[in-house]
Amino acid sequence: MSVVPLGDIPRIYAARTPDLPALIYPDATLTWAQLEHRASQRARMLGARGVAKGDFVTLAVGNSALFYEATFALWKLGACPNVVSSRLPAHELKAIVELVRPKVVITEVPAPDLGRPCIAADADTTAYSAAPIDSQVHAHWKAMTSGGSTGRPKVIVDNTPAEVDLDPSQSALYQHLRIAPGMVILNPGPLHHNGPFLFTELGLFVGCKVVGMTRFDAEESLRLIEEHAVNWVTFVPTMMHRIMALPASVRDRYDLSSLRIIWHMAAACPVWLKERWIDWLGPDRIWELYGGTEGIGGTEINGREWLQKRGSVGRPTSWTTLKVAAEDGRLCAPGEIGELFFLPPDPAPSHYLGAEFRQDAEGWKSLGDLGSVDEDGYVFLADRRTDLIIRGGANIYPAEVEAALDANDQVASSVVISLPCPELGHRVHAIVQPRDGMKLDLQALRAFAGQRLARYKLPESFEFASSPLRDDAGKVRRSALRAERLAWLAEGREFRLLLD
Question: How many structural domains is the chain composed of?
Fold first, then answer.
């Protein structure tokens, strides 16, 4: 086995192919030699500020080549990056820092009163030596941050040491992801989310070239695929929706023949949207992954399988043991919706700071998702347990309602939440963002959704949004949206009701 510390990766490839680009981002293009040079200088600068083996360092840096300089610098020192959004409000960043207690915080924007030293992301490192460093190995290679369903921060600490086998054939993860040495990977997503961070770093570990975007733009992603002959990319359904909203003449302008693998993940993909992608690019290049940052289990499916199992997120991966349990703990029958539980591998792949796993008495853990498994072992998601709307005793899954609304060509995006109803307990409320230049008729929109949903699932109240409802990773905090609207209702504000 050729297992090496993560901090040694740039040096290894700089020795083999020094002038080959490793990173292409809007802020810089770095060859392997340049990445090794800069990461070593940055490591010595951080070391002079006290960062050492065993430390956590909170990294609040946006999508850039500089981000990777920082991660490899930390791994060289034996420190673990705690990755957060560079746009976090000060109070959220402070809450995370209090939880993680990092040695230092690396930020793009000055953040006072954190109780920890702050270092500017672009701090000058030219005075420091770029000579090779004897890399150390932290017990945890990453610590990703999530807001969680409660809105309080939680940190998911990966229990894998900061080292990697340079032979991807020895890794089940590489085999499932189909990342191979020499590939060109496009990253359109924010690096503070686990998927973009994980896949681009994994690609670099085996010598891939990573092309990145500062922020997602639908047409620009297609242009980059053509320009750099990209082989491998991940999208979230929000991005897929925006690409599909481009005129066909724009989509067809770009040569996407280099693409071998297109993964989508992180949120439920509406059936109609996936069908359009398969029709456009063919079933063999479209893959879907379901799982969590926690690494306790997951599923995968390719487009050809999906055409036989429309709506499924696939069958469990080789390291996944899955069951579906009802509220009383009994195992659900095939097709019956319950909570998905995973039996994690031993040793545990991760642990939380600031939260506890939801688990049963036998140690099976849940990510909070509801779904079912059919007779052939294919998993179908329903929704998050915390997002479930119970209306008059009937279960309504917001993701299903959103998929029906988003299928309308005049809708850019939608989010469905519950609001109080004196008669039925809860009512379905839809927040809808129209496409640019479109003026939605709500009665017509509700009738459109009524062709796809049972009547009791239809939204009873609506509001319009003028800005995107999800971030570039397709994430939305329904709990925060609901709390905001409950406050509005308490102030006497009403939403437009459309009742039968």
Answer: 3
Rounded distance between C-alpha atoms, residue 354 and residue 146, angstroms = 10
**Spatial separation of the C-alpha atoms in residues 358 and 379, rounded to whole Å:** 20
Helix axes 237-245, 218-228, angle to 10 degrees: 90
21 and 50 assigned to the same domain: yes
Question: 22-26, 87-91, 149-153: which has the highest mean pLDDT?
Answer: 22-26
Residue 19: φ, ψ to 5°: -100, 5
Q: Please state whether 393 falls in left (phi above 0), alpha (psi between -120 and 50) or beta.
A: left
Residues 161 and 309 in one domain: no
Structural domain span for residue 424: 388-497
Same domain, 53 and 154: yes
Cis-peptide, bond into residue 5, ω within 30° of zero: no
| Secondary element (H or E) of residue 487 | helix 478-490
Among 256, 273, 290, which residue terminates a domain?
A: 273
Task: Please state, as a whole number, how many other Cβ atoms lie within 10 Å of the Cβ of residue 24.
Answer: 18
Q: What is the pLDDT of residues 402-430, one digit of tens each?
A: 888 988 889 988 999 888 887 677 889 99
pLDDT of residue 396: 82
